[in-house]
Amino acid sequence: MSRTAIHVLPDFTPSSNPDLHALLNTFRTHHLIPSALSRHQQQLIYRTKYAAQLALDPIFATLPNGEEVRLQHIDARKECPSKWSVIRDGIALARTEADWRNLMGVLEGMKDVGAGLREGWCEKWTNAAFRAGYPDVALLALRRVETTGLSLRMARVLYATFLGIRGSAQDEQGRWGDAERVGRAARRAEVVAEMMEHPGHCGRRHAGIEDPRASPFVIGTVAEMVALRARLAGDADGKEREKVRVYAGRLVASLEANRAQLDDTSLYECDAAWDTERYRQQWLPVWHALDECQKLLGDQGMPNAAFAKTAKEQITRNLEAAEAYITEMDVDPESFVGPKTPEWMAR
Fold first, then answer.
1. What is the chain's Cα-based Rg?
2. Model pTM?
3. Is 76 helix (H, G, I), strand (E, B) or coil?
4. Domain boundaries, the chain
5. How far apart are CA 244 and CA 246, in angstroms?
6. Residue 142 near residue 154, CB atoms below 8 Å
7. Among 284, 281, 261, which residue's Cα sits nearest to residue 273?
8. Separation between Cα atoms, residue 54 and residue 73, nearest integer Å
9. Rounded distance between C-alpha atoms, residue 145 and residue 210, angstroms
10. Series of mean pLDDT values for 10-residue runs along the chain (347 residues)
11. Can you name the residues that pair with 70 across neighbouring β-strands?
């Protein structure tokens, strides 16, 4: 996929199936290329009165990236797929890593033309990339935030990213036993945490209490992955144990700063079951991180062990209440987006 400093205008690589190829080609010819034309040239291709002229007397235009294209009439009302449908249908048709890299190019193209990428679209794309088994493509799109617009500043993208990383550490039954799988997920979690310092994400400003970098969910997911890695891989030299201690300290500090959330039942007593499930998915890694860190470090090594124990007990009660709340609403758990989660108290 070629990229320029002036316009992205991705030249998509061959797709795994003709339907995706046709979709990407239409997106390029009907959305991206017209956006790179001058106002006069845009009038030529969109206005019906010039259609016959363009068909009989070919007119060519040179794009900012040096590409020469023939101007052809476009019926914007009938021939241009909506930008959301390009993302939605592209996700449904993507089969390979090359396909997903092309879909990353769709994000780049949309940002380049000022399409106004909606947060829900970005969440959908991120969720789908992880669920399709291409977490590294998702991370690459996040790393290229300046060209893709996929930012961790968006709460729903942040949620989808860490939920996806957590899911990538589990096998199909929701178990954590594969050291290599967990190790890769832990590294991804650390990379994303570092990535959040980029101005395109959360910036280099001080991470205050409202900053997502300081949230129990973000710190808890990283701590959970690092602690699982240390337990499964073994830690002969103690380096991983020290890293676990550092993240455990950050998590406990975050929980102390967010004490009010521990006692706020309104966070999970929601009108929509999905909001309660989102709460559950955000606090499961926090509970699990406290559990794993405590087991690995012991009472003597766990930072502020007394408060950590109290917090874990409160989170336990909250998660049990949230689970019961969802059960009362009689919702099919399979309808929720996210990694399969085993009985979360089963160790």
1. 24
2. 0.87
3. helix
4. 1-148, 151-335
5. 5
6. no
7. 281
8. 7
9. 22
10. 52 94 94 90 92 92 86 89 93 98 94 83 96 97 95 95 95 88 97 93 70 93 96 80 95 94 83 85 96 94 96 95 82 51 37
11. 60
